[in-house]
């Protein structure tokens, strides 16, 4: 009951609470601004709920420990920011290929390199899609409030477990550090998805046997009697390495189809006043909050502006953006980077409507006034 | 004829293995399963984790929970497994490059935590999988494809490194002294904290050929002639030990184990 | 849908982050919406720092303060750095050690916040709570009950009486003038 009361909570704190509500019982991390509060919170909270925390020697090791723990049967997470995210990518690719569920939080800060550690940015958008080497599927989600930092983290775990893959939760310094009023849902009301354990006896079990058309293999934990093999080499459905071209193609195709066949389940977004909108703002994370304020300012002056806010950044809501581009006169994309998501939106718009960016990569947040001025400028 | 040991613990359908004729890694792998067999460990509870390299292909042939990870990271993956489920017996199979170059940081920190993992370093003094580049255990002056004029780096002593970092059990065996090697691995598994066994192997294909060490038999003979048991060494004058290396149990000092210490915190919170 | 923007500034280590959190929490206890943000430099102590709160009856989208209705400065450095954007109808509350410049705003208060904390309450570290008492007495941003409850929720155990006294003393210094 007390859980349902309104309270003041920080974004990073809400992310951790969402993770614990989703069943996260293992966290491995390394200190880095502006995500450190998640690790600090995990170190305090996990032993209280029977979970495990460990501060590893580096970001690479944290990602490795998370994958190991997931194989041992625990829902596992790590949290980091830009420089740390770059180091996570090695084993994030491993988790993609070996289909190990886990959640990686990236509270974005100014980059490149050490960049602006205490300032917000949204410049890891393309890294979230293409950071790990080789073709691989990707899911990246992006909350825009403290309340969503909780609920979207639950979703991240659900998708990770359902599709057996790493899921990236993008935040930015503003969302991670701001505190605002939240009313957390009752944990009993949350829909929690767990990985599918083996439905066959060990002698019949093949760790990567699944429908080639995007199926998700069953996953017993190490220690449950299945004694299977996991490798970062391309493998056939028995889990052992292969260099066979046909089997390689089947595996990679299945990994991509896990996403492509389930776009409706994975892609989440919020639409606001799109019906009559001549100008549509497409924004995510903290910038979407400025966009919402700018939209309200414009509407007050009778300018028909709408807002499309992707919560799922990857896979990209291509059909929806195409539809918007077919109806609107202009699309404005404010983002705290030099135009990363705009490229994707331009590709989907395919010349049907003009796509204009508002870009900052100087550690400063884009204000409602910045966006409102641009709206007036393009009228 | 295939031994019962091999039949019991190998995935027979995954053989033959990829190792070259004369490679010592098969002997080390046998020592690992022999130790497991003698300790009568439950196969379902044993996890064998490896990184990348010749050594790291071993888990694929073995009938346990097996994980072939990324280069150098085996100990970090293993740490996640052990911490998540301390009931599992976690054994890491790694190589000299895997554990002391790219994975050096994970080695010293696994040792520092004294987490209950047993690491067996298949040490052949060379990067074999990529064709014979010098490694952190290639002796100074020896050659590799990336040290055509002789290696000017100084080599790591994996056991001393791990001991200094906090490992509670370190030992060295060789593929010539196979029974000793089995015993050392067994005692390493029995030690509750972090154990490392430096298993000196031979690579006739790259290290041996590049350094004119002769065939596999010659290299084994070299091991026989240059290894001195630590107990015998204690009675020998220093000049007799020149050019020799020590084998046997080098260090054993039981210390609180990481997952048990963590469990104490959890239990004290539950009581509190 | 009125909203009030508050900027609390001083030097790092004066507890203004906590003061912002307490103020935001008090607003929530009153059934309002609140957002708290901070700009924090790499230096954990010293330097000019600020903590910002927006309190509103309606939804709050843009979370940063642009034109504060209430501006608190405990040091000259913070005053100089952050006073500029204060709203013309706003209130400036500064420690008496701060020289208040000729900025256009409705009301300006120069009060012995730091001295009161140190010499009246007896602990320099409660200056943030003294300041909260002062601010709320002048502006009535939140109900006194909610403010006291929020203070007691967030301060370390065993310091409740000290902080209650700090809050009360903060209220009183407004009436001396």
Q: What features would you describe in this structure?
A:
The complex is a heterotrimer of chains A (379), B (272) and C (177). By secondary structure, chain A is α/β, with parallel strands linked by helices. Chain A has 2 domains: 2-189, Thiamin diphosphate (ThDP)-binding fold, Pyr/PP domains (Rossmann fold), CATH 3.40.50; 270-378, Rossmann fold, CATH 3.40.50.920. Helix content of chain A is 39%, strand content 22%. Chain A has helices at 11-22, 36-45, 59-71, 82-98, 125-130, 146-163, 173-177, 245-260, 263-266, 286-300, 318-327, 340-349, 368-378; strands at residues 6-10, 24-29, 52-55, 75-80, 102-110, 116-120, 139-141, 166-172, 179-183, 229-231, 269-272, 279-282, 305-310, 312-314, 330-335, 354-359. In chain A, strands 2, 3, 4, 5, 6, 7, 8 and 14 form an 8-stranded mixed β-sheet that branches. Chain A has a 5-stranded mixed β-sheet with strand order 11-13-12-15-16, with helices on both faces. A two-stranded antiparallel sheet of chain A has the order 1-9. In chain A, strand 5 (102-110) and strand 6 form a beta hairpin. In chain A, helix 1 crosses helix 2 (36-45), helix 1 runs parallel beside helix 6 and helix 3 packs parallel to helix 4. Chain B is of the alpha/beta class. Chain B has helices spanning 4-9, 25-38, 58-61, 74-84, 96-102, 104-113, 158-165, 178-190, 204-210, 216-226, 230-233, 258-271, and strands spanning 46-50, 65-68, 89-95, 117-123, 126-127, 133-134, 169-174, 195-200, 227-229, 245-252. In chain B, the strands form 2 sheets. An 8-stranded mixed β-sheet of chain B has the order 2-1-3-4-8-7-10-9, with helices on both faces. The N and C termini of chain B lie far apart (60 Å). Chain C has one domain: Pyruvate-ferredoxin Oxidoreductase, domain 3. Chain C has helices at 16-29, 76-82, 113-121, 127-139, 144-154, 160-176, and strands at 3-12, 33-39, 46-56, 70-73, 91-95, 107-111. In chain C, strands 2-3-1-4-5-6 form a 6-stranded mixed β-sheet. The radius of gyration of chain C is 15 Å and the shape is globular. Chains in contact: A-B, A-C. The A-B interface holds A 26, 28, 47-48, 50, 52, 54, 56-58, 60-62, 64-74, 76, 90-91, 94, 221-233, 240-241 and B 11, 14, 43-45, 47, 49, 59-60, 63-70, 73, 76-85, 87-88, 105-106, 108-109, 262, 265-266, 269. Strand 10 of chain A pairs parallel with strand 2 of chain B.
